[in-house]
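Not sure how to ask, but would you mind making up any protein sequence you like and the tokens describing how it folds?
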Amino acid sequence: MEKKALIIGATGIVGGNLAQHLLSRGDWHVTGLSRGRNAMQSGVASVAADLTSQASVADALKGRDFSHVFFTAWARQATERENIRVNGAMVQHVLEALGPTGNLQHTALVTGLKHYLGPFEAYGQGNVPVTPFREEQGRQPVDNFYYEQEDRLFEAAGRYGFGWSVHRPHTIIGFALGNAMNMGMTLAVYATLCKETRQPFVFPGSPAQWDSLTDMTDARLLARHLEWAATSPNARNEDFNVVNGDVFRWKWMWSRIAQYFGIEPAPFDGQTRPLESRMQHAGKPWAEIAARHQLKEAEIGKLVSWWHTDADLGRPMEVLTDMTKSRKAGFLDYQSTPDAFFDLFDRLKAERIIPA
């Protein structure tokens, strides 16, 4: 049977890497659904719709059928209650439009480790489970739009008879422009600023993140995990953590990133120094760097997400993820996290996003 994928968020860090991966396989027809603000990559068909509008989604998907749907996007709102209302409805609108066709085989939902840590409003403030996080630890007793999305997915799957999978990556490393949660891009811009302006390369996070074990998720590995779960009977109707498979401490990784950029890491003195407050005036020097090196993007706000990197690196507890469930089900892939960073940095240079 022909595999026809609809990717919700096909221009983002997860959706873009997933689209590229599926196209490389040769047996997928790939369509991306978005508001139409950003161009789809070559080979991806485009459908424009406002996901928050049931009528807009229904009209855009009328007469279309897909075998697989991948939800890789969300819309950040001012409060978690609004996150729940808006993001839950987005899932429901798509599945109500496609479920009745009878052709939908599988729907995958990408969420993340806020499943265990809590939403931004209560991030890491509750009774966080013991690390490494395992799928059987379940939900936290707080409002969380991830749970609402899951419930809408489960309800639609039960009604229309398709399979599902839920994927919980840690911080994602991958190429994407204009992404709201992109630590790799943010650190590349930060390191470039430090090098070009001769400022110290200061670790912005907490002592807990500096000293504790942690892990990350390469967007390319996540793409392979999504395809595996969508086509493997062992993964049907299951939730999975998904990380690279190695572990590290930031006290080790920080010096590797500094070495890549040819700069010296500043000694860590135990103080948390968030990027968002320190980088408020970084726009002008970045524009000068962009002009000097003929970079593609001179507006720093379109490249970085200081707030998100601060949230990840400022966490006051160890964050580490277990992959046993995926391994036992048959997913044995692995990705070196240093290589994930360096591959991204190399591509950013090749694309003239940062200086070569």
